[in-house]
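Ticket reopened. Same input as before:
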Amino acid sequence: MSLMTVKELEDLMRREFPQNQIILESISSRSSRVRIPVNHSHLRPGGTVSGPTMMSLADMAMYLALLGEIGPELLAVTTNLNIHFIRKPESAQDLIGVCNIFKLGKKLAVGEVKIFSEGIEEMVAHATCTYSIPKS
Amino acid sequence: MSLMTVKELEDLMRREFPQNQIILESISSRSSRVRIPVNHSHLRPGGTVSGPTMMSLADMAMYLALLGEIGPELLAVTTNLNIHFIRKPESAQDLIGVCNIFKLGKKLAVGEVKIFSEGIEEMVAHATCTYSIPKS
Amino acid sequence: MSLMTVKELEDLMRREFPQNQIILESISSRSSRVRIPVNHSHLRPGGTVSGPTMMSLADMAMYLALLGEIGPELLAVTTNLNIHFIRKPESAQDLIGVCNIFKLGKKLAVGEVKIFSEGIEEMVAHATCTYSIPKS
Amino acid sequence: MSLMTVKELEDLMRREFPQNQIILESISSRSSRVRIPVNHSHLRPGGTVSGPTMMSLADMAMYLALLGEIGPELLAVTTNLNIHFIRKPESAQDLIGVCNIFKLGKKLAVGEVKIFSEGIEEMVAHATCTYSIPKS
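Engineering reply: fixed in the latest deploy. New output:
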Protein backbone atom coordinates (compact mmCIF):
# COMPACT_ATOMS: atom_id res chain seq x y z
CA MET A 1 0.00 0.00 0.00
CA SER A 2 1.24 3.47 -0.82
CA LEU A 3 1.67 6.07 1.89
CA MET A 4 0.05 8.74 -0.30
CA THR A 5 -2.99 8.35 -2.54
CA VAL A 6 -3.35 9.56 -6.11
CA LYS A 7 -5.62 12.33 -4.81
CA GLU A 8 -3.07 13.50 -2.23
CA LEU A 9 -0.27 13.43 -4.79
CA GLU A 10 -2.37 15.36 -7.30
CA ASP A 11 -3.10 18.04 -4.68
CA LEU A 12 0.60 18.27 -3.87
CA MET A 13 1.52 18.64 -7.54
CA ARG A 14 -1.09 21.34 -8.15
CA ARG A 15 0.23 23.30 -5.18
CA GLU A 16 3.96 22.84 -5.66
CA PHE A 17 4.32 22.44 -9.44
CA PRO A 18 1.61 24.74 -10.85
CA GLN A 19 2.95 24.52 -14.42
CA ASN A 20 3.07 20.76 -14.42
CA GLN A 21 1.22 19.08 -17.30
CA ILE A 22 1.80 15.49 -16.23
CA ILE A 23 -1.14 13.43 -14.96
CA LEU A 24 -0.73 10.72 -12.33
CA GLU A 25 -2.83 7.75 -13.40
CA SER A 26 -2.06 5.29 -10.64
CA ILE A 27 0.27 4.60 -7.78
CA SER A 28 1.04 1.31 -6.12
CA SER A 29 3.82 -0.37 -4.21
CA ARG A 30 7.07 1.19 -5.40
CA SER A 31 5.53 2.11 -8.73
CA SER A 32 3.60 4.77 -10.59
CA ARG A 33 1.96 5.30 -13.96
CA VAL A 34 1.90 8.80 -15.44
CA ARG A 35 0.69 10.39 -18.67
CA ILE A 36 1.54 13.51 -20.60
CA PRO A 37 -1.05 14.69 -23.12
CA VAL A 38 1.14 15.41 -26.14
CA ASN A 39 0.42 18.61 -28.03
CA HIS A 40 2.28 20.69 -30.60
CA SER A 41 4.36 22.36 -27.89
CA HIS A 42 6.08 19.02 -27.22
CA LEU A 43 7.03 18.32 -30.81
CA ARG A 44 10.36 18.92 -32.48
CA PRO A 45 11.55 18.77 -36.09
CA GLY A 46 10.61 15.47 -37.69
CA GLY A 47 7.22 15.43 -35.93
CA THR A 48 8.53 13.58 -32.93
CA VAL A 49 8.12 14.32 -29.24
CA SER A 50 11.10 16.22 -27.81
CA GLY A 51 13.65 14.56 -25.58
CA PRO A 52 13.07 17.02 -22.71
CA THR A 53 9.36 16.09 -22.67
CA MET A 54 10.34 12.47 -22.07
CA MET A 55 13.01 13.39 -19.51
CA SER A 56 10.44 15.42 -17.54
CA LEU A 57 7.99 12.54 -17.67
CA ALA A 58 10.61 10.08 -16.37
CA ASP A 59 11.70 12.40 -13.59
CA MET A 60 8.13 13.08 -12.45
CA ALA A 61 7.14 9.39 -12.59
CA MET A 62 10.02 8.55 -10.26
CA TYR A 63 9.28 11.50 -7.94
CA LEU A 64 5.66 10.43 -7.55
CA ALA A 65 6.47 6.74 -7.06
CA LEU A 66 8.95 7.80 -4.38
CA LEU A 67 6.60 10.19 -2.56
CA GLY A 68 3.99 7.45 -2.72
CA GLU A 69 6.36 5.40 -0.55
CA ILE A 70 7.95 7.95 1.75
CA GLY A 71 5.28 10.64 2.00
CA PRO A 72 5.44 14.34 1.04
CA GLU A 73 9.21 14.82 1.18
CA LEU A 74 9.16 17.70 -1.27
CA LEU A 75 12.91 18.16 -1.04
CA ALA A 76 13.76 14.75 -2.42
CA VAL A 77 15.97 15.66 -5.40
CA THR A 78 17.20 13.84 -8.48
CA THR A 79 20.92 13.14 -8.34
CA ASN A 80 21.19 11.21 -11.61
CA LEU A 81 19.03 10.51 -14.62
CA ASN A 82 20.12 8.36 -17.55
CA ILE A 83 17.80 8.03 -20.53
CA HIS A 84 17.99 6.03 -23.73
CA PHE A 85 15.78 7.21 -26.56
CA ILE A 86 14.90 4.03 -28.37
CA ARG A 87 12.23 4.70 -30.99
CA LYS A 88 10.48 7.74 -32.41
CA PRO A 89 7.30 8.35 -30.38
CA GLU A 90 4.03 8.87 -32.20
CA SER A 91 3.30 12.58 -32.52
CA ALA A 92 -0.44 12.07 -32.07
CA GLN A 93 -0.39 9.80 -29.02
CA ASP A 94 -0.02 10.64 -25.36
CA LEU A 95 3.11 9.37 -23.68
CA ILE A 96 2.78 6.97 -20.76
CA GLY A 97 5.53 6.47 -18.16
CA VAL A 98 5.68 3.42 -15.90
CA CYS A 99 8.06 3.66 -12.96
CA ASN A 100 9.40 0.83 -10.80
CA ILE A 101 11.64 1.56 -7.85
CA PHE A 102 14.49 -0.97 -7.60
CA LYS A 103 15.89 0.24 -4.33
CA LEU A 104 14.47 2.33 -1.58
CA GLY A 105 17.25 3.00 0.90
CA LYS A 106 17.56 5.58 3.64
CA LYS A 107 19.70 7.90 1.55
CA LEU A 108 18.99 6.94 -2.04
CA ALA A 109 16.21 5.56 -4.20
CA VAL A 110 16.93 4.03 -7.61
CA GLY A 111 14.34 3.10 -10.19
CA GLU A 112 13.53 2.77 -13.85
CA VAL A 113 10.89 4.41 -16.02
CA LYS A 114 9.66 2.81 -19.22
CA ILE A 115 8.06 5.25 -21.64
CA PHE A 116 5.51 4.26 -24.27
CA SER A 117 3.33 5.96 -26.87
CA GLU A 118 -0.16 5.08 -25.71
CA GLY A 119 -1.48 1.91 -27.26
CA ILE A 120 1.87 0.78 -28.72
CA GLU A 121 3.72 -2.07 -27.14
CA GLU A 122 7.33 -1.20 -27.96
CA MET A 123 9.08 1.18 -25.57
CA VAL A 124 10.07 4.61 -26.90
CA ALA A 125 12.50 5.43 -24.09
CA HIS A 126 14.00 3.86 -20.98
CA ALA A 127 15.30 5.87 -18.05
CA THR A 128 17.02 5.03 -14.80
CA CYS A 129 16.84 7.60 -12.07
CA THR A 130 18.38 8.15 -8.64
CA TYR A 131 16.84 10.38 -5.97
CA SER A 132 18.51 11.58 -2.81
CA ILE A 133 16.14 11.37 0.15
CA PRO A 134 16.42 14.16 2.72
CA LYS A 135 16.74 13.25 6.38
CA SER A 136 13.35 13.72 7.95
CA MET B 1 35.77 27.16 -37.62
CA SER B 2 32.13 26.24 -37.27
CA LEU B 3 30.03 25.41 -40.30
CA MET B 4 27.14 27.49 -38.96
CA THR B 5 27.31 30.88 -37.26
CA VAL B 6 25.52 31.94 -34.09
CA LYS B 7 23.18 34.03 -36.27
CA GLU B 8 22.33 31.07 -38.53
CA LEU B 9 21.75 28.78 -35.56
CA GLU B 10 19.54 31.40 -33.87
CA ASP B 11 17.44 31.70 -37.02
CA LEU B 12 17.10 27.92 -37.19
CA MET B 13 16.02 27.71 -33.55
CA ARG B 14 13.44 30.48 -33.92
CA ARG B 15 11.96 28.70 -36.93
CA GLU B 16 12.09 25.11 -35.72
CA PHE B 17 11.77 25.45 -31.93
CA PRO B 18 9.45 28.46 -31.49
CA GLN B 19 8.93 27.81 -27.74
CA ASN B 20 12.63 27.56 -27.03
CA GLN B 21 13.89 29.87 -24.26
CA ILE B 22 17.56 28.97 -24.53
CA ILE B 23 20.00 31.55 -25.88
CA LEU B 24 23.10 30.56 -27.86
CA GLU B 25 25.96 32.71 -26.63
CA SER B 26 28.82 31.36 -28.71
CA ILE B 27 29.85 28.54 -30.93
CA SER B 28 33.32 27.35 -31.78
CA SER B 29 35.14 24.21 -32.82
CA ARG B 30 33.16 21.30 -31.39
CA SER B 31 31.77 23.46 -28.62
CA SER B 32 28.95 25.79 -27.65
CA ARG B 33 27.96 28.03 -24.78
CA VAL B 34 24.27 28.50 -24.02
CA ARG B 35 22.21 30.34 -21.41
CA ILE B 36 18.76 29.98 -19.99
CA PRO B 37 17.32 33.03 -18.22
CA VAL B 38 15.93 31.47 -15.05
CA ASN B 39 12.48 32.64 -13.94
CA HIS B 40 9.87 31.38 -11.53
CA SER B 41 8.57 28.87 -14.09
CA HIS B 42 11.86 26.95 -13.79
CA LEU B 43 11.84 26.67 -10.04
CA ARG B 44 10.72 23.73 -7.95
CA PRO B 45 10.16 23.21 -4.21
CA GLY B 46 13.18 24.34 -2.22
CA GLY B 47 13.76 27.33 -4.50
CA THR B 48 16.02 25.43 -6.85
CA VAL B 49 15.97 25.15 -10.63
CA SER B 50 14.16 22.03 -11.82
CA GLY B 51 16.01 19.05 -13.23
CA PRO B 52 14.16 19.15 -16.55
CA THR B 53 15.32 22.76 -17.08
CA MET B 54 18.92 21.57 -16.81
CA MET B 55 18.29 18.51 -18.98
CA SER B 56 16.82 20.72 -21.71
CA LEU B 57 19.78 23.05 -21.47
CA ALA B 58 22.24 20.16 -21.81
CA ASP B 59 20.40 18.64 -24.74
CA MET B 60 20.18 21.96 -26.60
CA ALA B 61 23.83 22.83 -25.95
CA MET B 62 24.88 19.55 -27.54
CA TYR B 63 22.46 19.93 -30.46
CA LEU B 64 23.81 23.38 -31.28
CA ALA B 65 27.46 22.37 -30.92
CA LEU B 66 26.74 19.47 -33.26
CA LEU B 67 24.87 21.52 -35.89
CA GLY B 68 27.71 24.03 -35.69
CA GLU B 69 29.95 21.22 -36.97
CA ILE B 70 27.76 19.32 -39.40
CA GLY B 71 25.32 21.99 -40.62
CA PRO B 72 21.52 22.13 -40.34
CA GLU B 73 20.81 18.41 -39.90
CA LEU B 74 17.55 19.02 -38.08
CA LEU B 75 16.90 15.32 -37.74
CA ALA B 76 19.94 14.62 -35.60
CA VAL B 77 18.38 13.04 -32.50
CA THR B 78 19.53 12.34 -28.98
CA THR B 79 19.99 8.64 -28.31
CA ASN B 80 21.27 8.93 -24.74
CA LEU B 81 21.58 11.59 -22.08
CA ASN B 82 23.08 10.99 -18.67
CA ILE B 83 23.05 13.81 -16.14
CA HIS B 84 24.43 14.15 -12.64
CA PHE B 85 22.91 16.90 -10.51
CA ILE B 86 25.77 18.00 -8.33
CA ARG B 87 24.83 21.13 -6.39
CA LYS B 88 21.70 23.21 -5.91
CA PRO B 89 21.69 25.97 -8.53
CA GLU B 90 21.08 29.56 -7.46
CA SER B 91 17.44 30.45 -7.97
CA ALA B 92 18.26 34.03 -8.96
CA GLN B 93 21.02 33.32 -11.50
CA ASP B 94 20.82 32.30 -15.13
CA LEU B 95 22.15 28.87 -15.95
CA ILE B 96 25.06 28.56 -18.38
CA GLY B 97 25.82 25.37 -20.32
CA VAL B 98 29.20 24.69 -21.90
CA CYS B 99 29.34 21.80 -24.37
CA ASN B 100 32.40 20.01 -25.68
CA ILE B 101 32.06 17.28 -28.27
CA PHE B 102 34.40 14.35 -27.53
CA LYS B 103 33.70 12.40 -30.65
CA LEU B 104 32.23 13.36 -33.99
CA GLY B 105 31.83 10.18 -36.00
CA LYS B 106 29.76 9.45 -39.07
CA LYS B 107 26.96 7.81 -37.11
CA LEU B 108 27.32 9.15 -33.58
CA ALA B 109 28.49 12.25 -31.74
CA VAL B 110 29.32 12.11 -28.02
CA GLY B 111 29.97 15.11 -25.82
CA GLU B 112 29.67 16.59 -22.37
CA VAL B 113 27.87 19.64 -21.05
CA LYS B 114 28.95 21.39 -17.88
CA ILE B 115 26.23 23.50 -16.28
CA PHE B 116 26.90 26.47 -14.01
CA SER B 117 24.92 29.13 -12.18
CA GLU B 118 26.23 32.32 -13.76
CA GLY B 119 29.17 33.81 -11.92
CA ILE B 120 29.78 30.76 -9.71
CA GLU B 121 32.74 28.53 -10.38
CA GLU B 122 31.50 25.18 -9.09
CA MET B 123 29.47 23.09 -11.53
CA VAL B 124 25.80 22.49 -10.71
CA ALA B 125 25.33 19.61 -13.15
CA HIS B 126 27.32 17.50 -15.60
CA ALA B 127 25.76 15.73 -18.58
CA THR B 128 27.07 13.41 -21.25
CA CYS B 129 25.04 13.17 -24.40
CA THR B 130 25.00 11.02 -27.55
CA TYR B 131 23.39 12.10 -30.81
CA SER B 132 22.66 9.93 -33.80
CA ILE B 133 23.55 11.69 -37.03
CA PRO B 134 21.25 11.02 -39.99
CA LYS B 135 22.77 9.99 -43.29
CA SER B 136 22.84 13.06 -45.49
CA MET C 1 14.55 -18.21 -32.55
CA SER C 2 18.15 -17.16 -32.11
CA LEU C 3 20.54 -17.12 -35.03
CA MET C 4 23.29 -18.74 -32.94
CA THR C 5 22.89 -21.57 -30.44
CA VAL C 6 24.35 -21.73 -26.95
CA LYS C 7 26.86 -24.29 -28.27
CA GLU C 8 27.98 -22.02 -31.13
CA LEU C 9 28.29 -19.03 -28.82
CA GLU C 10 30.29 -21.06 -26.30
CA ASP C 11 32.69 -22.16 -29.04
CA LEU C 12 33.07 -18.57 -30.17
CA MET C 13 33.80 -17.39 -26.63
CA ARG C 14 36.37 -20.13 -26.01
CA ARG C 15 38.15 -19.19 -29.22
CA GLU C 16 37.96 -15.40 -29.00
CA PHE C 17 37.91 -14.73 -25.25
CA PRO C 18 40.15 -17.48 -23.82
CA GLN C 19 40.31 -15.86 -20.35
CA ASN C 20 36.58 -15.49 -20.07
CA GLN C 21 35.03 -17.00 -16.93
CA ILE C 22 31.41 -16.25 -17.77
CA ILE C 23 29.07 -19.13 -18.63
CA LEU C 24 26.20 -18.73 -21.08
CA GLU C 25 23.20 -20.54 -19.62
CA SER C 26 20.57 -19.82 -22.24
CA ILE C 27 19.79 -17.68 -25.21
CA SER C 28 16.43 -16.81 -26.67
CA SER C 29 14.77 -14.08 -28.67
CA ARG C 30 16.63 -10.85 -27.88
CA SER C 31 17.71 -12.20 -24.51
CA SER C 32 20.39 -14.16 -22.71
CA ARG C 33 21.09 -15.56 -19.27
CA VAL C 34 24.69 -15.75 -18.05
CA ARG C 35 26.45 -16.81 -14.87
CA ILE C 36 29.77 -16.03 -13.27
CA PRO C 37 31.00 -18.49 -10.64
CA VAL C 38 32.09 -16.14 -7.88
CA ASN C 39 35.40 -16.93 -6.17
CA HIS C 40 37.77 -15.04 -3.93
CA SER C 41 39.35 -13.28 -6.92
CA HIS C 42 36.08 -11.38 -7.48
CA LEU C 43 35.73 -10.13 -3.94
CA ARG C 44 36.66 -6.72 -2.59
CA PRO C 45 36.89 -5.26 0.92
CA GLY C 46 33.68 -5.85 2.83
CA GLY C 47 33.28 -9.35 1.36
CA THR C 48 31.28 -8.15 -1.60
CA VAL C 49 31.71 -8.87 -5.30
CA SER C 50 33.66 -6.16 -7.08
CA GLY C 51 31.98 -3.68 -9.39
CA PRO C 52 34.16 -4.64 -12.38
CA THR C 53 33.01 -8.27 -12.05
CA MET C 54 29.41 -7.10 -12.45
CA MET C 55 30.28 -4.70 -15.28
CA SER C 56 31.98 -7.54 -17.17
CA LEU C 57 28.98 -9.77 -16.63
CA ALA C 58 26.60 -7.10 -17.93
CA ASP C 59 28.73 -6.39 -20.97
CA MET C 60 29.09 -10.07 -21.86
CA ALA C 61 25.37 -10.79 -21.36
CA MET C 62 24.52 -8.05 -23.85
CA TYR C 63 27.22 -9.16 -26.32
CA LEU C 64 25.90 -12.72 -26.32
CA ALA C 65 22.24 -11.69 -26.60
CA LEU C 66 23.23 -9.51 -29.54
CA LEU C 67 25.32 -12.14 -31.34
CA GLY C 68 22.44 -14.54 -30.76
CA GLU C 69 20.37 -12.21 -32.95
CA ILE C 70 22.81 -10.98 -35.56
CA GLY C 71 25.31 -13.85 -35.80
CA PRO C 72 29.07 -13.87 -35.16
CA GLU C 73 29.76 -10.16 -35.62
CA LEU C 74 32.83 -10.22 -33.41
CA LEU C 75 33.49 -6.56 -33.99
CA ALA C 76 30.27 -5.35 -32.41
CA VAL C 77 31.54 -2.99 -29.70
CA THR C 78 30.09 -1.42 -26.60
CA THR C 79 29.61 2.33 -26.99
CA ASN C 80 27.97 2.97 -23.61
CA LEU C 81 27.38 1.10 -20.39
CA ASN C 82 25.56 2.56 -17.41
CA ILE C 83 25.33 0.50 -14.25
CA HIS C 84 23.62 1.07 -10.94
CA PHE C 85 24.88 -0.99 -8.02
CA ILE C 86 21.82 -1.52 -5.91
CA ARG C 87 22.52 -4.02 -3.15
CA LYS C 88 25.56 -5.84 -1.82
CA PRO C 89 25.80 -9.20 -3.62
CA GLU C 90 26.26 -12.37 -1.59
CA SER C 91 29.93 -13.31 -1.49
CA ALA C 92 29.16 -17.04 -1.60
CA GLN C 93 26.66 -17.06 -4.47
CA ASP C 94 27.22 -17.03 -8.19
CA LEU C 95 26.02 -13.95 -10.02
CA ILE C 96 23.36 -14.33 -12.71
CA GLY C 97 22.83 -11.78 -15.47
CA VAL C 98 19.63 -11.59 -17.50
CA CYS C 99 19.75 -9.46 -20.64
CA ASN C 100 16.85 -8.10 -22.67
CA ILE C 101 17.48 -6.15 -25.83
CA PHE C 102 15.13 -3.16 -26.12
CA LYS C 103 16.13 -2.11 -29.58
CA LEU C 104 17.91 -3.88 -32.38
CA GLY C 105 18.55 -1.34 -35.09
CA LYS C 106 20.91 -1.41 -38.04
CA LYS C 107 23.52 0.73 -36.32
CA LEU C 108 22.81 0.35 -32.61
CA ALA C 109 21.43 -2.15 -30.16
CA VAL C 110 20.24 -1.07 -26.70
CA GLY C 111 19.35 -3.38 -23.85
CA GLU C 112 19.30 -3.90 -20.13
CA VAL C 113 20.93 -6.47 -17.88
CA LYS C 114 19.53 -7.33 -14.48
CA ILE C 115 22.06 -8.92 -12.13
CA PHE C 116 21.13 -11.19 -9.23
CA SER C 117 22.90 -13.26 -6.60
CA GLU C 118 21.71 -16.78 -7.40
CA GLY C 119 18.58 -17.74 -5.53
CA ILE C 120 17.82 -14.22 -4.27
CA GLU C 121 14.96 -12.30 -5.78
CA GLU C 122 16.12 -8.72 -5.31
CA MET C 123 18.39 -7.32 -8.01
CA VAL C 124 21.97 -6.47 -7.02
CA ALA C 125 22.70 -4.33 -10.07
CA HIS C 126 20.98 -2.96 -13.16
CA ALA C 127 22.83 -2.02 -16.34
CA THR C 128 21.82 -0.50 -19.63
CA CYS C 129 24.15 -1.07 -22.54
CA THR C 130 24.52 0.16 -26.11
CA TYR C 131 26.42 -1.72 -28.80
CA SER C 132 27.45 -0.39 -32.17
CA ILE C 133 26.86 -2.95 -34.90
CA PRO C 134 29.43 -3.06 -37.69
CA LYS C 135 28.24 -2.95 -41.28
CA SER C 136 28.34 -6.47 -42.60
CA MET D 1 46.90 18.35 -0.19
CA SER D 2 45.69 14.77 -0.17
CA LEU D 3 44.98 12.99 3.07
CA MET D 4 46.75 9.87 1.83
CA THR D 5 49.99 9.69 -0.12
CA VAL D 6 50.68 7.59 -3.21
CA LYS D 7 52.78 5.30 -1.01
CA GLU D 8 49.99 4.81 1.53
CA LEU D 9 47.44 4.17 -1.20
CA GLU D 10 49.76 1.67 -2.90
CA ASP D 11 50.18 -0.21 0.37
CA LEU D 12 46.42 -0.27 0.85
CA MET D 13 45.85 -1.61 -2.65
CA ARG D 14 48.48 -4.34 -2.28
CA ARG D 15 46.87 -5.46 0.96
CA GLU D 16 43.20 -5.18 0.01
CA PHE D 17 43.21 -5.81 -3.75
CA PRO D 18 46.02 -8.36 -4.23
CA GLN D 19 45.04 -9.13 -7.84
CA ASN D 20 44.94 -5.49 -8.85
CA GLN D 21 47.09 -4.61 -11.89
CA ILE D 22 46.45 -0.88 -11.85
CA ILE D 23 49.27 1.49 -10.89
CA LEU D 24 48.65 4.78 -9.11
CA GLU D 25 50.88 7.39 -10.71
CA SER D 26 49.88 10.48 -8.78
CA ILE D 27 47.31 11.88 -6.44
CA SER D 28 46.44 15.48 -5.79
CA SER D 29 43.50 17.57 -4.66
CA ARG D 30 40.36 15.70 -5.71
CA SER D 31 42.20 13.97 -8.53
CA SER D 32 44.26 10.94 -9.43
CA ARG D 33 46.19 9.56 -12.36
CA VAL D 34 46.36 5.80 -12.86
CA ARG D 35 47.85 3.41 -15.42
CA ILE D 36 47.15 -0.11 -16.53
CA PRO D 37 49.95 -1.89 -18.38
CA VAL D 38 48.06 -3.39 -21.32
CA ASN D 39 48.93 -6.98 -22.22
CA HIS D 40 47.29 -9.67 -24.33
CA SER D 41 44.94 -10.59 -21.47
CA HIS D 42 43.21 -7.22 -21.88
CA LEU D 43 42.62 -7.49 -25.59
CA ARG D 44 39.46 -8.56 -27.37
CA PRO D 45 38.63 -9.38 -30.99
CA GLY D 46 39.75 -6.60 -33.31
CA GLY D 47 42.95 -6.05 -31.31
CA THR D 48 41.40 -3.49 -29.02
CA VAL D 49 41.42 -3.25 -25.24
CA SER D 50 38.30 -4.75 -23.66
CA GLY D 51 35.56 -2.59 -22.19
CA PRO D 52 35.83 -4.19 -18.73
CA THR D 53 39.53 -3.25 -18.59
CA MET D 54 38.56 0.39 -19.06
CA MET D 55 35.64 0.16 -16.62
CA SER D 56 37.97 -1.25 -13.96
CA LEU D 57 40.46 1.51 -14.61
CA ALA D 58 37.77 4.19 -14.26
CA ASP D 59 36.39 2.68 -11.08
CA MET D 60 39.82 2.37 -9.46
CA ALA D 61 40.86 5.90 -10.47
CA MET D 62 37.77 7.30 -8.73
CA TYR D 63 38.25 5.07 -5.67
CA LEU D 64 41.84 6.25 -5.22
CA ALA D 65 41.03 9.93 -5.79
CA LEU D 66 38.29 9.59 -3.18
CA LEU D 67 40.42 7.78 -0.59
CA GLY D 68 43.07 10.42 -1.20
CA GLU D 69 40.53 12.94 0.10
CA ILE D 70 38.70 11.07 2.84
CA GLY D 71 41.30 8.57 4.04
CA PRO D 72 41.20 4.75 4.08
CA GLU D 73 37.41 4.28 3.97
CA LEU D 74 37.66 0.86 2.38
CA LEU D 75 33.91 0.42 2.37
CA ALA D 76 33.23 3.33 0.06
CA VAL D 77 31.32 1.65 -2.78
CA THR D 78 30.41 2.58 -6.32
CA THR D 79 26.70 3.24 -6.74
CA ASN D 80 26.79 4.23 -10.41
CA LEU D 81 29.22 4.13 -13.28
CA ASN D 82 28.44 5.42 -16.75
CA ILE D 83 31.05 4.99 -19.47
CA HIS D 84 31.18 6.07 -23.08
CA PHE D 85 33.65 4.22 -25.28
CA ILE D 86 34.75 6.82 -27.76
CA ARG D 87 37.63 5.52 -29.83
CA LYS D 88 39.47 2.23 -30.23
CA PRO D 89 42.42 2.22 -27.85
CA GLU D 90 45.86 1.29 -29.12
CA SER D 91 46.56 -2.37 -28.39
CA ALA D 92 50.25 -1.72 -27.73
CA GLN D 93 49.93 1.27 -25.40
CA ASP D 94 49.19 1.42 -21.69
CA LEU D 95 45.95 3.05 -20.73
CA ILE D 96 46.01 6.14 -18.53
CA GLY D 97 43.05 7.28 -16.43
CA VAL D 98 42.72 10.81 -15.08
CA CYS D 99 40.06 11.33 -12.42
CA ASN D 100 38.57 14.59 -11.22
CA ILE D 101 36.05 14.64 -8.41
CA PHE D 102 33.21 17.12 -9.12
CA LYS D 103 31.50 16.79 -5.79
CA LEU D 104 32.62 15.52 -2.44
CA GLY D 105 29.59 15.48 -0.17
CA LYS D 106 28.99 13.71 3.10
CA LYS D 107 27.02 10.90 1.49
CA LEU D 108 28.10 10.90 -2.14
CA ALA D 109 31.09 11.70 -4.30
CA VAL D 110 30.72 12.27 -8.05
CA GLY D 111 33.55 12.54 -10.52
CA GLU D 112 34.73 11.87 -14.03
CA VAL D 113 37.54 9.76 -15.43
CA LYS D 114 39.08 10.47 -18.81
CA ILE D 115 40.89 7.51 -20.32
CA PHE D 116 43.69 7.78 -22.87
CA SER D 117 46.07 5.49 -24.72
CA GLU D 118 49.44 6.70 -23.48
CA GLY D 119 50.96 9.38 -25.67
CA ILE D 120 47.78 10.01 -27.67
CA GLU D 121 45.81 13.18 -27.08
CA GLU D 122 42.29 12.08 -28.00
CA MET D 123 40.29 10.37 -25.27
CA VAL D 124 39.40 6.71 -25.75
CA ALA D 125 36.70 6.63 -23.07
CA HIS D 126 34.93 8.94 -20.64
CA ALA D 127 33.32 7.75 -17.42
CA THR D 128 31.31 9.41 -14.69
CA CYS D 129 31.19 7.65 -11.38
CA THR D 130 29.33 8.00 -8.09
CA TYR D 131 30.56 6.57 -4.78
CA SER D 132 28.59 6.22 -1.60
CA ILE D 133 30.66 7.24 1.41
CA PRO D 134 30.10 5.22 4.60
CA LYS D 135 29.45 7.06 7.83
CA SER D 136 32.67 7.07 9.79
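Residues 51-70 of chain A form the longest helix (20 residues). Chain A has a mean pLDDT of 93. Please confirm and we'll close it.
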